[in-house]
Design brief:
About 15% of the residues lie in helices and about 40% in strands. By secondary structure, it is mostly beta strands. Strands 1, 2, 3, 4, 5, 6, 7, 13, 14, 18, 19, 20 and 21 form a 13-stranded mixed beta sheet that branches. A three-stranded mixed beta sheet has the order 9-12-11, covered by helices on one side. The C terminus is likely disordered.
Length: about 375
């Protein structure tokens, strides 16, 4: 099979190549990028010794960084005249996912937004970024054994924000971007080679009832706070209860319910799994989670903008260079796609696929605190 990507692994000044199999997985919902490599060339294994104790590695395709991170496992197996080396690892953001801060004196931060909170708690050199509006939080309090990720992700859910691993090793706070991939994915047209459409109602609920007890105060509203968010796509009474994990005011509780509505539509509404040849769109950009792409499958009544929620890039001698993309409605990630020549003004999907646009509350009256 044709291996169209020149994949290299840089470590301690060495540039290793010649892999028989490469896998890279990314997701909007994952703060790290995962990779796996397999090689059976006996001559390659001598240089590979450096990987066993490397502090940092950089995986690239044609010189473009796919993942800057660390090796989790190195396995070398030999049988008679055959030798096989397997390597797996994650982007540098894994340090924030696995390790707690130990130098912060109080574990408490007041009146700062989530990006500022993440940076203040981080002690392992992981960089944090944001491409979405973040609202200051009155107080963030770590649980004693929480990693940085545990703390940030808990408060991120209350704001409808995802933590996404980036190729440079950083973690991005996002709701998906307005960036688009070039071209479109169309039924019967390359690079799309296979598709699967899924519509599931099993994970949908309405109303989403958010219940919470405020950190301070003794009024009924503070002791038994409750907000409800309804999903118009659910035709029957199918309630779900969400218990507040943080000290939430009325705005935050509403947003937590809205986030529940959006994510249940991503997991239980319309989704598409698309197999494509190659790792790049027609413009030469490597497929990236969070970007928009127009999907055209008339036989399934799907013709609309979709957002890449997750993907796996694979290159092997058996299957060549391929990618598998999981697509969801753009609204389900909390960010609407903008109309344009290749945008929402072309959407012709069956109206029953439609997901109500996100509606996050940006401010709250002092009387609702």
């Amino acid at each position: 099979m044709d291996l169209s990507e020149d994949v290299t692994l840089e470590v301690d000044g060495l540039r290793l190549r010649g892999f028989q199999e490469v896998n890279i997985s990314r997701s909007l919902n994952d703060a790290t990028i995962s990779f796996g490599l397999r090689v059976t060339n006996p001559a390659w294994s001598a240089d590979a010794f450096a990987i066993r104790f490397a502090k940092e590695v950089v995986l690239k395709a044609a010189g473009e960084t796919l993942c800057r991170g660390t090796v989790d496992d190195f396995e070398s197996e030999c049988e008679e005249d055959k030798r096989e080396v397997r390597i797996s690892g994650k982007s540098k953001g894994v340090l924030a996912v696995r390790h707690p801060p130990v130098k912060h004196k109080t574990g408490r931060i007041e009146n700062k937004d989530l990006l500022m909170v993440a940076k203040e708690f981080t002690e392992t050199g992981v960089e944090w970024k944001s491409d979405t509006k973040l609202t200051p939080i009155a107080m963030v309090q770590r649980n004693p054994l929480d990693t940085v990720f545990d703390t940030v992700e808990r408060y991120a859910r209350a704001q409808g924000v995802m933590l996404t691993g980036q190729p440079d090793g950083s973690i991005l706070l996002t709701r998906g971007s307005d960036k688009r991939h070039g071209g479109e994915l169309a039924e019967g047209v390359r690079p799309m080679t296979k598709y699967k459409i899924k519509v599931s109602q099993s994970k949908k609920a309405s109303p989403s009832v958010v219940r919470n007890q405020r950190r301070m105060g003794v009024t009924p509203k503070q002791l038994r706070s409750e907000e409800q968010v309804f999903d118009p796509s659910v035709g029957t009474f199918r309630p779900a209860i969400i218990l507040g994990e943080t000290d939430m005011d009325q705005r935050q509780a509403k947003n937590a319910g809205e986030w529940q509505r959006l994510r249940q539509n991503a997991n239980g509404g319309l989704s598409a799994t698309i197999s494509v040849s190659g790792w790049r769109d027609p413009d030469g950009t490597i497929w990236e989670p969070g970007r928009l792409i127009f999907l055209r499958i008339p036989s399934e009544r799907v013709e609309q903008d979709m957002r890449i929620e997750s993907l796996t890039l694979t290159q092997s001698l058996r299957d060549g260079t391929t990618a598998e993309l999981t697509l969801v409605d753009p609204n389900t990630t909390g960010s609407q796609s903008k109309s344009g020549k290749a945008g929402t003004n072309r959407n012709k999907s069956d109206s029953r696929y439609e997901v109500k646009a996100p509606s996050f509350v940006e401010s709250v009256s002092p009387t609702d605190q």
